[in-house]
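ok trying this again, last paste got cut off
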Amino acid sequence: MSGMTESLVVIVVGLVLIAAGALLGLKFGVAAPLLLTAVGVGASFLPMFTDISIEPEWVLEGLLPPLLYSASVAMPSMNFRREFGAISGLSIALVVATSLALGIFFMFAIPGLGFAWGVALGAIISPTDAVATSIIRQAPVSKRVMALLDGESLLNDATALVLLRTAIVATASAFSIWGMVGTFAWSVAVAAVVGVIVGALNLAVRARISDPAVNTVLSFTVPFLASIPTDLLGGSGLVAAVVAGLATGFRAPRELSPESRLSDTQNWRTVELVLEGAVFLTMGLQIKTIVAAVVDLHGNVILACLVALGALVLTLLIRAGYVTALLGLLRRRARRRARTQPRLQDIQEKMTTDEGRQLALDRLNTRPGRPRTVRDLDRFMTRITRSLADVDYFLRQPLGWRDGSIVVWAGMRGAVTVAAAQTLPESTPQRSVLVLIAVVVALASLVVQGGTIGALVGHLTGSSETDDEDEQTTAQRRRLRELLRAASETVPNSSSTGHRSPDMGQPPTEKAHHVAVLNAQRDALLDARDDGTFDAELLEDELANLDAAQIAIEMREREVG
């Protein structure tokens, strides 16, 4: 069998295994990443995989950008904005604190390693894995918990990789916290600028292309158009891909056609399934080679495994302490916001009258600076509406100790940890041992945390909480129906008396009226999304329904055309 044929067979078998893992995981209630990792470990004993070596850059620069981009496009922008403070803390402060604590632990646990190399290994282990965290999506967790976990896993890789580079440089001089801060600030700033520009250009170009297939093909290039130039400029390509995804996800419903967005969603789900499966299969395939390298150099792997388990326990303890403090801060912030609610509601109520609006405008003009206009008043009212929606969001979905426990236990490590460990320079002292420690931490995290998170969520989530959520959802759906009805009434009704041919089914004017109603309803939903007055998931469902209705109308029109 030729080399090309062998490669094709491996690819085909890999795709079949990924599909089978997804189906079996759903059927037996086992996370697909665990199944695929186990399959990868088993396959590593086959002759064709004996000397397999996966370049870590393929994972960090080839697989991660599209995965993070896809996740960020799908993430509700309003939830990300509301939880940004907590997400930033988990992505930056927690990663730095965990890396430094692990640096001290490794310095004492591994003789001759030193603090800087310990911090480097700590940075590799500290971030949660966006792909591994996908396991939690199968469990019925609260929307706020999911927003925290998704946001954290989207951004913390940048902190970890910057810290890793800083620690490696420090091995030749001295470790500098301020040097790391400067490098991190530059890395994120460059990524943010490039990500926003690429996201805007992405929509500007794709809005002019009517073919959904071509549109989706162009979308596959976006994460790399953001990450590659950012990396060349010394920034974080992963953060750039995330920012481009957030910018795209926020504006796409207003800029792209329903068919293009539906095509994007379906095709990106396929890409996610294949890339996530490839990540965990390759992770399993590498474990045998990594273990064999340590055995050849040091005789056994027991010490490395014990150190890895100790590091995982320490990581979870630090995470538990940080999340406990974070929940306290979030509760205090919610109480502080609740105290502002009556005053904001009073302002909003007064602004419903012409006299109230004029009085508010006069008060705005008493402040120094340029004269305020009606447009400034409208922006002020928008801020009031969003502030009230934020208060309602935090009061309606408080985070308790159960949610905190899920946030702690759902912070899993995965293939990113394995890939980052293999980027350690060949001159790293006891490199094979450090790589093995990272692999054992990732594997133990997936097996222990990933294998029990479903049972933990089921135990902590009570039926009363589910009933409360159902009541809130029902009330919001009722308000959504009223919003859609009001939006449809703003469109003048078409009183068509034209000839109705049997082929056409309904007159063109009536079709145009239906599309106009759908557009008005979509605009109303997107305005509500921007104001945050409804749950993001409910809005997404309603937007999907509107898109499906519009696509059906356009397909019927093409059929009769």
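PB: full thing came through this time. The mean pLDDT is 83.
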